[in-house]
From TrEMBL:
Annotated InterPro entries: Arylsulfate_ST, Arylsulfotran_N, Arylsulfotransferase_bact, ASST_N_sf, Quinoprotein_ADH-like_sf
Organism, as annotated: Blautia faecis
Lineage of origin: Bacteria, Bacillati, Bacillota, Clostridia, Lachnospirales
Listed name of the protein: Aryl-sulfate sulfotransferase
Matching SUPFAM superfamilies: Quinoprotein alcohol dehydrogenase-like
Stretches assigned to the Arylsulfotransferase N-terminal domain: 123-206
Amino acid sequence: MKKWSKKKKITILLLFLVLLALFAGLCWKKRRGIYNTYMKLTNQEIPYSVKEKRKKKYGYYGQKLKVTMDVDNTISIQENDDSANDIQTEIPQAKTLVATSYEIDQQLQAEQENGYTWDDPMVILNPYQISPLTAVVLFDTEEEYGVRFTVKGKTAAADISGEIDAASSHRVPIIGLYPGEDNTVVLELLDDSGRVKDSQEITITTEALPESLTDVIEPVETSGESAYDLTMVYGQSTHLPFAYDCMGDIRWYMNKETGNYGLYMLSNCRMIWQDTAGYVPNLEKPQSTNLYELDYLGRAYNMYYLSGGSHHEVIEKEPGGNLLVLTSSMQSHCEDKVEEIDRQTGAVVNELKLQDIIKCKYENLVDWAHINTVSYQPETDTILLSVRNLESVIKVNWTTKEIQWILCDPRFWEGTDYEKYVLKADGDFIYQFQQHTAYQIDTDLDGDDQTIEITMFDNHFLWRRKKDIDYYDKTEESYLLVYSVNEAEGTVKQIKKIPTVWSKITSAAIYDADSNHFFGMCGHVANAENGWKGMTYEFDYDTEKVLNQYCLKKTFYRAEEMRIDYNDLASPMELDENYIKGELWQPVKTWKWLWNKKPEQVLPADTLTYNITGKVLYIGTYDHQISQVIFKGAKNTYVYDTTEVRLHMETFLDFYENIPVPLQGMNADNYEIYVMYQDGFYDTQQTFAIN
């Protein structure tokens, strides 16, 4: 037998290896079909990670993915507006609202030193340019006095008053002016005992409301007074937040738009404002990355970056403490993650991805959880989550991530590993469907000190997923609920159920302990007469009598009391050195030879917009049009890549967003900016240098 030569053996071996590689590649390409067939034959659920790859995605143009950016790999931001000076570029700078607020505040301080008197005060309307129904009054007095102001209302109950502490140089904040009117404001000087030493009236004239807020609210029923002096409405299609009084008249608004969810109240009577300046692509709607700490005059004190964007809830863990923020894991899912943000640095110090503690078939949906509230109970180190798309309120230990209990119709979790956590009903009642605003409150409403009370807005509606729950009763009304939970015994009672107009999504239930009133804020009314889109109620908790009811012609996210600290508003601003803080997705450093070839195409100049805030580059584009931003330097190359964030809802392709791309972690170099835009590789002809 003729022996093969060594050279021929090597050739055959190489050919075999090539064929083996081709076969392996074919198997890899076909793996989903083989795997799916196996899963079906064994009566198993096909994992979402497999199903997701087969679904149609929008805004994905078949780009070649050369670099994968890990969305869990973030960079810390600790800077201010002056940090932009470290970047040499022709790209324009955009100031934060913090910087512009502080500039105006310094001008007010200088103006106050001009020595205005009690007899001839200086009145400045809308001092910070974004809160038109506010003003400040400047004057000095020879002695120290406290000051009280009162904006005279159309009724005595509609008067809006506030006081500031004693001083000889006064900056008096005025909140609650009527739009388009000559407002009468009474100023009073108060001595140490609170007695009025002198008073005067001044007139402040305001402009009319913008068209979007004209006739936006109408009283249905009013008692002439309310537990709330002013009630704020915001979010959804109410892009300009406003506040109304007990007669349904608007007395405050912002002329600056918020993001989709609006704002969130803080214990210092400021708010976290979801801004529209920065968004990150998501699997569904893009989410705002920029959060301001803002007051009612329009002054911004801090700006926080949130890498995965924010949705539904930002709340203090404890008064003055860290922030609990709802965001998205981006791991084939959205609106499924909680992060704890350090209040001083913006760093993420703890987090929970809901799929890490719950495994169920509903993970096969992109928005499988849809968390819409979170709150913290310090005495038990637990968080309370309202998980809308699981019909459940879930209590979880924030340190160990162990489930404590689930408040839900037992039929939902029947036959699963989570059935053991479901609270047992004490008495007969109908459970909630896709609820909002579930919070534990401090007030003992059932007279049993062994229980805790949970307030809830029960939308009583199944959004998208009606066929999955055959026991949905379709009552076409929503409810304000209070549950009494005995945690030791694992039982739950429904101790209050007040019906409201049917509000399919958003909305809030608020119990006010001081007045014993229960508020129903119905943000998305389904079948209202005359085209009204929202409704707010104020009930007496005990009698369930409607005290006040108002219709709104816009949908909204939430409504709540406007709580005001007038001494804070009267004080000059103080800033942290690094008032821009937080985390953003970090561009990946890569081999420069991967991008050696300069793009042959130049992107038309008006296709994208560009600006820089601090050391963050903002690129404006329609959602999911850009998949990669390439920073090509002489010695370094970085890529910001969102190719794996696949859009599942075509409607958001019409959403224009400014994507924040941090430059902080890049080495010194001269960079050109390229982009993968739709299905092409383009030179933007934008450049910058880092020294």
